Amino acid sequence: MWSVSNPSPNGPASHPDLQATRIVVLGGGPGGYEAALVARRLGADVTVVEQEGLGGAAVLTDVVPSKTLIAAAEWMSSTERAPALGIRLGGTPGSDAPAASVDLAAVNQRVLALAAAQSADIRARLEREGVRVVLGAGRLDGPRRVVVPAGPGAGEREQTFDADAVLVAVGATPRELPTAVPDGERILTWKQLYNLQTLPEKLVVVGSGVTGAEFAGAYRALGAEVTLVSSRDRVLPGEDADAAELLENVFTARGMEVLSRSRAEAAERTADGVRVTLADGRVVEGSHVLVAVGAVPATAGIGLEEAGVALTPSGHVVVDKVSRTSARGVYAAGDCTGVLPLASVAAMQGRIAVHHVLGDAVHPLNLQTVAANIFTAPEIATVGKSEAALRASGSKYVTATLPLARNPRAKMLGMRDGFVKLFAHPEAHVVLGGVIVSPRASELIFPVTLAVAHRLTVDDVAEAFTVYPSLSGSIAEVARMLHQPLD
């Protein structure tokens, strides 16, 4: 057990009433380390317990690695536009020489190096701010105590930390199928892809959600033959229907095989590859298979239920809009809550939790202003109400769409696939939501996010200046299409 020490005089400014507040954070991902930094700046005594490394899965095996890999794929995708721009890559005209080739071992070496560097940066920042960092597999021993067993990185003796509040931010792990057990060589989860040294000859991707679509698109761009197995009627079944249809058309145009309404039953190794059996008896063969069928919260066996923390049947921690669980003094954030599996949401949940613990001003979590992005080529960015949600609720709305191909800047860059779509209230004219399908849509969605968050009208957006020519000009143009003249 440890005693509370006063923050370093060279540390962050602190509130005198919060000197004795002890916060233990179980998990060092975005929900955990962001919360720790806020709590420390407010003067709390903070300990972060993390098993894999600072940054958690988001930095080490999920968001940072996948988007770094996709960055290489994005470069390859951009070469498709080269001929339209008058640029010749590769060999001489008429040659069979490829425009570019991929060294997957070098790509993955860079992926893992960047992830490790980011993790080290996060740890250094936490320690610089005065946060206590403990490596180990922590578990709750009641609602106000965390125990870290002895083990590699955790020390030779069990450590016990009493707390005034505990934040659980343990994340989630890839869901595994009992009939497709990952072996790390041919049957893979998304955490294991970065061990590949050569590009798969044929990659079978099981699952057409965000993870499956991102990796399928990336590996096709890198040069692998790809078959995407989707149990639903289209790719990205939970996303905007127009965006999903466009992306599926792009996938097939690039040579990807998309098997819709095809549920995978099993995957097994063959002498030199894999065999994926579908529910209807068909068999898909490949060199490797990626099983991307969701994630499960990492909440088992860490003492949550014994501490009085309610879990859903799926194992997610039940939380309210200020991140409280059913156990007094225990909060939770991130993928283990099942609220919305985004690093930005996890970080917000964690920050809200510590503000609530420390009696600071708190704004409950508002998912209506969350911007999300799918890092395919083109990217799909969304914010606010979706068209499906508006229809399901019977809400009044008007919508307008402008194809990216009509944008002058897009024409200059050789971009054809994509669009900007906005939803607005027909009477109040307030922007309710939006979808952008475009290269770097993740950067373009921000003006729409501001409009949704601050309840701007379409006229507010339309009357703002944009650079000419620019891709963002299409956002203002769509807003002008939604203008309603005065009676």
UniProtKB/TrEMBL annotation:
Enzyme class: oxidoreductase
Cofactor(s), by name: FAD
Keyword Heme: no
EC number: 1.6.5.2
A molecular-function term among this protein's GO annotations: NAD(P)H dehydrogenase (quinone) activity
Pfam families given in the database record: Pyr_redox_2 (PF07992), Pyr_redox_dim (PF02852)
Limits of the Pyridine nucleotide-disulphide oxidoreductase dimerisation domain: 371-477
Domain FAD/NAD(P)-binding, first and last residues per copy: 22-350
Protein's UniProt keywords contain Metal-binding: no
Keywords: FAD, Flavoprotein, NAD, Nucleotide-binding, Oxidoreductase
InterPro entries: FAD/NAD-bd_sf (IPR036188), FAD/NAD-binding_dom (IPR023753), FAD/NAD-linked_Rdtase_dimer_sf (IPR016156), Pyr_nuc-diS_OxRdtase (IPR001100), Pyr_nucl-diS_OxRdtase_dimer (IPR004099)
Residues the entry annotates as binding NAD(+): G207, S208, G209, V210, T211, G212, A213, E214, G294
Catalytic function, reaction form: a quinone + NADPH + H(+) = a quinol + NADP(+); a quinone + NADH + H(+) = a quinol + NAD(+)
Cofactor binding, note field: Binds 1 FAD per subunit.
Chain sites annotated for binding FAD: K67, G138, D335
Domain of life according to the entry: Bacteria
Subunit structure as annotated in this protein's UniProt entry: Homotetramer.
Family (UniProt): Belongs to the class-I pyridine nucleotide-disulfide oxidoreductase family.
NCBIfam families according to UniProt: PRK07845.1 (NF005883)
The protein's name in its UniProt record: NAD(P)H dehydrogenase (quinone)
Organism: Luteimicrobium subarcticum
